[in-house]
Amino acid sequence: ARKLDIAQLRSDFPILQTQVYGKPLVYLDNAATTQKPSAVIQAMNDYYTQYNSNIHRGVHYLSQKATAEYELVRKKVQGFINAEHLHEVIFTKGTTESINLVASCFGRKFLRPGNSIIVSAMEHHSNIVPWQMACEEHGAELRVAPMNEKGELLLEEFERMLDETVKLVSVTYVSNTLGTVNPVKEMIELAHGQGIPVLVDAAQAIQHMPVDVQELDADFLAFSGHKMYGPTGIGVLYGKEKWLQQIPPYQGGGDMIKTVTFEKTTYNDLPLKFEAGTPAIAEGIGLGAAIDYLQHLGMANIAETEAQLLAYTTEALQEVKGLRFIGEAESKAASISFLVGNTHPFDVGEILDKHGIAVRTGHHCTEPIMHYYGIPGTVRASLAFYNTTEEIDKLVAAIQKAAMLLS
Ligand code: PMP
Q1: φ, ψ of residue 256 in degrees (nearest 5)
Q2: Neighbour count for residue 215 (Cβ, 10 Å)
């Protein structure tokens, strides 16, 4: 892997040249959403200024051009995650909708009273609540694979839970709060050993490392465009053909049908079976530009660059007196949660903000993790390849100041 030229790359992101409160923006809230390179903004602008049109049914030039550009993005996604078939790539609004789709449709087809679904102790609410809803609807039980104090899943415990009641495992690849990179490939192997399919929430993985659905042998994989330098409002559900064929459609409407009469409707083939209504066309095209951008940098190079920055940040934060990391897994990606002495995360976040430093505070949509540690929330600094060691030095200095002010 090659180290990326960060100073050069930063100029691709207009917002990184801006200031807040008269100070250069230090953006360390990348797990919530990443900033967008000009190429993404430009691609969306081009669509609206040059070929804005609805897709899939148009006879005219603009519609055909828009359809071709949008469908080309499906091809880019297929290549990016190495899906075997193009029609295994379903466009959604984002990770949340992707997981809701599977919970709803897989649930209707396969969940019965007495069945169970397994999630992990470190899931985002969007990988908990849809399963709770499906379980409630079908009389099934939601079970939780436990973790240790370091924020690592207990694989042996997980393996023991894989009994004949389990219909599906849904697990996050990377924890947005703890930064833990879970051994999803091993977990999938274990689950498949019992004939159980696995959904991988890749919302915090796809932007940090190469993700290969065939290598993982994932049955479903979900992610959001806006966390991988693309627009909001667009995301992906990858599903193995054999599952997408078997489960019923999600929403009804245009595009997802073959023929409609008042008596009977026949559904469209994959992937359109799951894509009712006019999609987020501009956003899809923006996602395509984001994928081009990432592939140009190289995901392995991004992973290497971020690993070095993560190591630098972890070491620098260790120097802060009274700082306690929440999540100390051996294998981590770019999210770092911590608490400083007895200070409240929100107070620290507010002081950092006044220095132009954007971090997130609170439960990060993972309340069960907060309950596990018995804490109200954390301060979370989440990194992207465009962050610099100088920015980390500013973060550390500002935390020192906050600690002094608040003690
Ligand atoms: N899962 C994880 C691990 C996440 O970090 C997030 C976003 N914070 C989501 C799911 C939900 O993603 P979205 O809000 O883009 O649908």
Answers
A1: -90, 5
A2: 11
Q: Which of 365, 367, 380, 382 to mutate to test the pocket of ligand 1 (most atoms within 8 A of CB)?
A: 365
What is the spatial distance between Cα 244 and Cα 31, in angstroms, rounded to a whole number? 29
Cα–Cα distance, 107 to 291 (Å, whole number): 31
Atom 14, ligand 1: residue with shortest CA distance: 96
Residues with CB under 6 A from ligand 1: 31, 94-96, 124, 126-127, 172, 176, 201, 203-204, 224, 365
Tokens of 346: 């929100």
Q: Which of 124, 175, 178, 200 to mutate to test the pocket of ligand 1 (most atoms within 8 A of CB)?
A: 124
| Mean pLDDT in order along the chain per 10 residues (407 residues) | 92 98 98 98 98 93 98 98 98 98 98 98 98 98 98 98 98 98 98 98 98 98 98 98 98 95 96 97 98 98 97 98 97 97 97 98 98 98 98 98 94
- Rounded to whole angstroms, the Cα distance separating 326 from 333 reads 14
Q: Please tell me the distance from the alpha carbon of residue 61 to that of residue 219, in angstroms, as a whole number.
A: 37
For residue 329, the one-letter residue type is: A
Residues noted as catalytic: 365
pLDDT tens digits, 318-330: 999 999 999 999 9
Residue 57: predicted pLDDT: 82
Closest Cα to atom 4 of ligand 1: 203
